Structures are given as structure tokens and as C-alpha cells.
């Protein structure tokens, strides 16, 4: 049944042979790769959402003359900017805490499992 699609190769081996996205020699390493990719995806989605909110609020700010609506637009712009600050700040704090606790800034951002 699947032969109708032809021979499908792993695209990550073609793009970056031997990358950590395809194989993991660590026990439980595949789970960390999955969670790391989901975290990156959620951060990208949150950033795009904040950017769209800034654009929509800017349009609302430019198209209205009522002070109440202008206040709503400013509130929406500030909320989106604070959200972007939290997104960027989480990476900075994770790197700082990783450096202080483990001596490696990427320790919390790219965890490794050591085991038998």
C-alpha cells in the first residue's frame, strides 16, 4: 500500500547528515529531541502571534479617533511587546541559570541524558 508513494527517505539525513534530529545514542534522547522541537515550535508560534497582534493593534490605532479605542490599541501593543519580552527573557534566564548551576549556558536549553 505504501509503495504507491515511492521510496521516501529521511529529509534530515539529506539536509544535515548525522544530525541530532535523526538519531540519538543517548537513552531517552529521542524524547528530549521531541520536547526541544516542540518548545522551539511553540516559541515561533507565540512570536508570530505577538507580531500579528502588534500589526492589528497598530492598524486599530491609526484608524480610530476615539480616545477609548486608542487606549485599547496601546494596551494591545504593550501586551504583545511584554509577551515578546517574556519569550526572549526565558532564553536569557535559562542560559544564565544553566551557566551558574552547570557551568554551561546550553545545559537547560539542550539537555543531555547520561546513563548506561
Automatic annotation (TrEMBL):
Annotated keywords: Membrane, Transmembrane, Transmembrane helix
Keyword Transmembrane helix included in the entry's annotation: yes
TM segment ranges: 41-62, 82-102
Keyword match Transmembrane helix: yes
Protein name in the entry: Integral membrane protein
Organism expressing this protein natively: Candidatus Amesbacteria bacterium GW2011_GWA2_47_11b
